[in-house]
Design goal:
Length: 90
Amino acid sequence: MVKEKIKPAEKQDNLTSEERELILFNDDVNTFDYVIETLIEVCGHDPYQAEQCALTAHLKGKCGVKSGSFDFLKPLCDEMTSRELTVSIS
């Protein structure tokens, strides 16, 4: 059986059409501890990963916190929004 090889560019194009990213934006309202706790509870991050994402969002203005399909990310986005974090799916 001959397997068809997928070129990296084709594979990347396929991923970008389906794969989305949940972006956390920095704000001046929520504490680091609250953001970290939310990332652990909603996104399933371990404490170190949640801390790094919170710090990256603080220093760079935003951070990708979860990847997946839109249908997978939408409930996470809604929950984080209901907890008054600023997030979007891109």
